[in-house]
């Protein structure tokens, strides 16, 4: 910076020549210099004030925006910093084959107390007991007035309950945000989904973990953040599931049955379209397991998967199918059915006297135990056991339920000749209805092995061959005959060509032997029989139906009509159009007398 001199020589000399005072020039320059300095100082101060004003404006704007955001957001309790790992609360949804939600998460709040911050613990305890009838006011008072510094009160709250607690207005009551598992369809598919509960818990979140069913089987996948919340898609159809449960529940009540189970399976892929076990439960409020007594008495017990039953005559198609495939018999082969069939000290009887002989087709249609036992002796125990093992009837089911691996079919320790005969008609071996459904699908879909699955199959894989296509077709024809002319006549559903086999077996008595007034009745069916698409198994536990003044317990009067109603309602939901024969065509023909008349072809 170049400053102007206070006493410029040129002006000083000029002033002296003119006789003027040179000091005036100096004083004037000093005044101008001071004015310039004041102007610069003023400009600098104004710039600083402007910057300070802008800073305060920005700061107040930021504070105001933050306050507005906080006012508009959901209130939450402050969190204490912790060195422990973060609780992962998020859990992926579960959906049906069409994307409809079966299980999801719901944002809610927990309620806890810090007694040291309470103003009036006794009043708070009384008020909470009014809001939550399951809480005891005296017990809460002791907790609030004792030495405890933290008390859990409720793990989850409804919005109404939360507002009621807010209205108490005590600073010692605090809320913690958390997710809870919600099953919007209530009882539907309860045994499939199983349920979820809380694992590790904190005031700000809780860990959602599966406790049963697919929730536990796929727990790691549902909680894995790497899946980015991708829902787990099951094979079941929610509408068909609802239909099955409604019909099965009504049938169980009409038949005065202790329980019931139903499985609808794709005959080619093994996909379980619907599976119901009754009585059931609401997974939103999962009951506690039984600590004593029979596990089957609990609504948590899945009769379709965990129930091991002697399923009676439904087993007859396995030995007959194997014998057909081995070339030992044909559908027309005559079998000795003269009874009783005596083996040592044991006697095998038929439900009715069917005469001295029946064809193989009639053995199935009339459900002859003696006929099935004699066919089994043609095969032999070694081959019979190997064939049933190939069908998966001797091993736990591979279905994706956490309960399934622990359910091993009950088979005789010594597979004797007598066992070979009784197993041919479903006695002496206990399997689940799911085992039976998968085995029927494998026998009747053309003869290829099917494994049951609860996951939607995008690319079906054909399993290994069990029986030939010709044998599979012969079995379907026989099962269709059972419905049109045999023990399952009440199962004939117009337009859907149902084929199936009934089975009624006495229940074992825990004290030994069998009950004479308690049975398991089962109907295993396929539809359409000429081109199988689905297999349906319906099992009823201890049904009792009074008809025409007589007690009816057999499957033909109990399980069969229930299965028929399920097919009648579910088939259209599955996109199956009834195959109804068109009425005879009306044509015009010439009468003898030259008159026109109507004739039907």
In short, what is this structure?
The protein has helices at residues 9-17, 22-72, 121-131, 137-145, 159-168, 190-193, 213-217, 219-223, 238-254, 316-326, 360-366, 369-379, 381-390, 417-424, 433-444, 469-485, 559-573, and strands at 94-95, 101-113, 151-157, 173-182, 195-201, 206-212, 232-233, 259-266, 272-278, 334-336, 341-343, 346-348, 357-359, 499-508, 514-527, 534-541, 545-547, 550-552, 586-590, 596-600. It is an alpha+beta fold. The protein has three domains: 1-43; 94-233, Alpha-Beta Complex (Penicillin-binding protein 2a (Domain 2)), CATH 3.90.1310.10; 240-289 and 301-573, Beta-lactamase, CATH 3.40.710.10.
Describe the structure.
The protein has 3 domains: 43 residues; 140 residues, Penicillin-binding protein 2a (Domain 2) (Alpha-Beta Complex), CATH 3.90.1310; 323 residues, DD-peptidase/beta-lactamase superfamily (Beta-lactamase, 3-Layer(aba) Sandwich), CATH 3.40.710.10. Strands 1, 2, 3, 4 and 7 form a 5-stranded mixed sheet that branches. It has a 5-stranded antiparallel sheet with strand order 9-8-16-15-14, sandwiched between helices. 35% of the residues lie in helices and 20% in strands. With 601 residues, the chain is of the alpha+beta class. The C terminus is likely disordered.
Number of helices: 17
Q: Roughly how much helix do the residues carry, as a percent range?
A: 25-40%
Distance between the termini: 122 Å
Task: Give the rounded overall mean pLDDT.
Answer: 88
CATH topology descriptor of the largest domain: Beta-lactamase
User: What is the CA-based Rg, rounded?
Assistant: 41 Å
Low-confidence stretches: 80-84, 585-601
- The secondary-structure class comes to alpha+beta
Q: Tell me the domain tally.
A: 3
Query: How many beta-strand elements?
Result: 20
CATH superfamily of the largest domain: DD-peptidase/beta-lactamase superfamily
Tell me the major beta sheet.
Answer: 5 strands, mixed
């Amino acid at each position: 910076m170049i400053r102007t001199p206070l006493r410029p020589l040129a002006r000083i000399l000029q002033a002296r020549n003119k006789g003027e005072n040179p000091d005036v020039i100096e004083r004037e320059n000093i005044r101008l210099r001071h004015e310039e300095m004041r102007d610069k100082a003023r400009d600098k101060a104004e710039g600083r004030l402007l910057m300070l004003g802008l800073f305060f404006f920005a700061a107040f704007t930021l504070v105001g925006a933050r306050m507005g955001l906080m006012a508009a957001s959901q209130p939450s309790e402050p969190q204490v910093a912790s060195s422990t790992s973060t609780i992962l609360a998020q859990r992926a949804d579960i959906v049906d084959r069409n994307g409809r939600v079966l299980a999801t998460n719901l944002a809610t709040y927990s309620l806890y107390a810090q007694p040291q911050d309470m103003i009036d613990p006794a009043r708070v305890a009384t008020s909470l007991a009014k809001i939550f009838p399951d809480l005891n006011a005296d017990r809460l008072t002791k907790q609030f007035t004792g030495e405890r510094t933290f008390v859990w009160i409720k793990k989850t709250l409804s919005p109404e309950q939360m507002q009621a607690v807010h209205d108490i207005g005590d600073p010692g009551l605090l809320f913690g945000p958390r997710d809870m598992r919600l099953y919007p369809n209530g009882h539907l598919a309860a045994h499939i989904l199983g349920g979820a509960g809380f694992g590790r818990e904190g005031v700000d979140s809780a860990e959602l973990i599966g406790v049963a069913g697919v929730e536990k089987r796929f727990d790691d996948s549902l909680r894995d953040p790497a899946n980015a919340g991708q829902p787990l898609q099951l094979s079941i159809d929610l509408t068909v599931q609802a239909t099955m449960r409604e019909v099965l529940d009504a049938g169980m009540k009409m038949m005065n049955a202790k329980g019931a189970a139903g499985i609808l399976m794709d005959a080619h892929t093994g996909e379980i379209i619907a599976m119901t076990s009754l009585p059931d439960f609401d997974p939103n409020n999962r009951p506690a397991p039984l600590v004593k007594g029979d596990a089957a008495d609990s609504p948590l017990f899945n009769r379709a998967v965990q129930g091991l039953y002697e399923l009676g005559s439904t087993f007859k198609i396995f030995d007959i199918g194997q014998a057909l495939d081995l070339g030992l018999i044909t559908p027309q082969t005559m079998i000795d059915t003269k009874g009783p069939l005596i083996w040592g000290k044991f006697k095998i009887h038929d439900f009715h006297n069917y005469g001295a002989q029946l064809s193989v087709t009639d053995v199935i249609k009339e459900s002859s135990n003696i006929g099935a036992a004699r066919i089994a002796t043609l095969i032999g125990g070694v081959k019979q056991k190997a064939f049933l093992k190939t069908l998966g009837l001797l091993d736990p089911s591979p279905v994706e339920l956490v309960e399934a691996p622990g359910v091993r079919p009950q088979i005789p320790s010594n597979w004797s000749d007598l066992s070979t005969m009784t197993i041919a008609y479903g006695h002496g071996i206990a399997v689940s209805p799911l085992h039976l459904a998968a085995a029927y699908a494998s026998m009747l879909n053309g003869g290829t092995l099917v494994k049951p699955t609860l996951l939607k199959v995008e690319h079906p894989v054909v399993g290994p061959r069990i029986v030939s296509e010709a044998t599979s077709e012969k079995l379907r024809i026989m099962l269709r005959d059972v419905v049109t002319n045999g023990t399952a006549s009440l199962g004939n559903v117009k337009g859907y060509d149902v084929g199936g086999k009934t089975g009624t077996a006495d229940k074992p008595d825990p004290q030994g032997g069998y009950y004479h007034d308690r049975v398991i009745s089962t109907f295993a069916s396929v539809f359409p029989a000429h081109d199988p698409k689905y297999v349906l198994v319906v099992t009823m536990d201890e049904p009792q139906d009074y008809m025409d003044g007589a007690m009816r317990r057999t499957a033909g009067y109990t399980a069969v009509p229930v299965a028929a109603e399920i097919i009648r309602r579910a088939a259209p939901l599955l996109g199956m159009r009834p195959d109804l024969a068109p009425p005879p065509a009306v044509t015009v023909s010439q009468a003898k007398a030259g008159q026109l008349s109507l004739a039907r072809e």
